[in-house]
Amino acid sequence: MILLQTPANNKRLEEVSIFCLNMDIASEYSKQNPGSKEAYKKACRNLPSGCTRTVLYWPPFPLCLAAGRGTRLWDVDGNKRIDFNFNNTTLILGHNHPKVVEAIEEQLGKGTVLGGPTEVEPKLAEELVRRLDGVDMVRFTPSGTEANMQAVRLARSYTGREKVAKCEGAYHGSWDAVDISVAPPLEKAGPRDAPFSVRQHEGIPDGVLENTLVFPFNDAEAAEALVRKHRDELAAVIVEPVQRDTPPTPDFLKALKDVTKRHEVLLIFDEVISFRLSQGGAQGLYGVTPDITTMGKIIGGGFPVGAYASREEVMAPVVLPETVFPDFKAPRLGFSGTFNAHPVSMAAGLAVMQEMKPEVYRRMDFLGERMRRGLRRALDDVGVGAFVGGIGSFFHIIWTGEEVVDYRTAATGNRDLGRYFSLDMMNRGFFLLGHPNVSAVTTEEDVDTALDGARQSVKALKPIIKERAPHLLHT
Ligand SMILES: Cc1ncc(COP(=O)(O)O)c(C=O)c1O
């Protein structure tokens, strides 16, 4: 038995039977990371679950990180790992890129947050407008969650309707209207082609369930049927054009575009993660232009950020009506936030975007493909038939024999095996969890070293795979 504090109830030290983690992997992890274990125990005294982001907890305890540089991450025990997470896809130029540090230092030399518009904010907006088709205007928020909140509100204001539709399995941030059916238990999820709306967390009122409709990713027919049925009530359809690393089927985004346009419903692409896939994000890659685009992560250069962008006509509710001094009229849709467009985020984000030239995306695509191919080969050589997916700079293993195209197929994956693999890779010197990805500073050597580690790890996991998911073994 090991003692650990569960995120569900940090007041209670619960005994967790070691059966849930392979003894060798878990005890090696504990041996390598005594400082992290101690830090976690201490942090739990005052922080629910020991830290402020639920996804940063993993059993038996998360690593307490100390520093990052380029593609390397150090924890408080001095262990060095190659990072393939980059704060869940945020740090596209790696940790502390010199150009980003220079921009931050220059901005900090002028102050922190100044309490008025700054020169750097429109520069980042201009850079984003240049990259996105059908976009004239951008508004910044402190997070991707708030970008989606505002985008949905904007769509409601623009259309005068209330409902939104989202894909099962999509994450659009921790906010009521979209925190529905993100990872619903299958027994509550309803039919595959007409899923129920399932609240992701407690505290979300019933009324929200009525206003958020759900359809399966990559099912154009189901999406069209839902939009047709609710056309008079739907303000927006919000999708991740690449959902959790899963690319769209060829017709899916185009079908969404056509049906929403036909019924005057706004189409929102949440590109908080997928914007890293090309100069113009996933929409640039697939040639489908939404009505509203939301962004986050890479466009803040490692600082808090979010943004929503659209054409002038859609943004009209947010624009101040013209008046003559001393008259003032508030816009139909106001949005204040003390840290909106924080100058340091703007400066860091601008520095990142200026580095992201076409050849950099091409290199990342090449490395992502090298990783995906290498993982497939490693699994095959070891005789394991798991699914390797991803696109561009994303890669992942889902421990299933099925082809993953949506939430239901992804849900056939064995999550325990994912946790074993991730922990074992940490033991071997790789930080590979959440949305694994390569950055612009990741090298071929980093990828090949990780592939060697992955091959050894899958070999080591074979007895566990045999016990828990024998159908994945070739022999
Ligand atoms: C697709 C997507 N949308 C929205 C968000 C929320 O962004 P933030 O964490 O900045 O609030 C995330 C976060 O991971 C995301 O992956």
How would you summarize what this structure contains?
By secondary structure, the protein is of the alpha/beta class. It has helices spanning about 25-30, 35-45, 85-90, 100-110, 120-130, 145-160, 205-210, 220-230, 250-260, 280-285, 310-315, 345-355, 360-380, 405-410, 415-425, 445-470; strands at about 1-5, 15, 65-70, 70-75, 80-85, 135-140, 165, 210-215, 235-240, 265-270, 290-295, 305-310, 385-390, 395-400, 430.
What attributes characterize this protein structure?
475 residues, Aspartate Aminotransferase, domain 2, 3 domains, 7-stranded mixed sheet, 4-stranded mixed sheet, disordered N terminus, binds pyridoxal-5'-phosphate
Structure description:
- The chain has helices at 23-32, 34-43, 86-89, 98-108, 120-131, 144-159, 206-211, 220-229, 252-262, 281-286, 312-315, 343-355, 358-382, 407-410, 415-427, 444-468; strands at 2-5, 13-16, 65-69, 72-75, 80-83, 137-141, 163-167, 212-215, 234-239, 266-270, 292-296, 306-310, 387-389, 396-398, 430-431.
- The protein has three domains: 1-62, no CATH class; 98-355, Type I PLP-dependent aspartate aminotransferase-like (Major domain) (Aspartate Aminotransferase, domain 2); 357-475, Aspartate Aminotransferase, domain 1.
- The strands form four sheets. It has a seven-stranded mixed sheet, with helices on both faces. Strands 3-4-5-15 form a four-stranded mixed sheet.
- The protein is an alpha/beta fold.
- Strand 3 (65-69) and strand 4 form a beta hairpin.
- The protein contains 16 helices and 15 strands.
- Pyridoxal-5'-phosphate (PLP) is lined by residues 88, 143-145, 148, 171-173, 240, 270, 272-273, 296, 306.
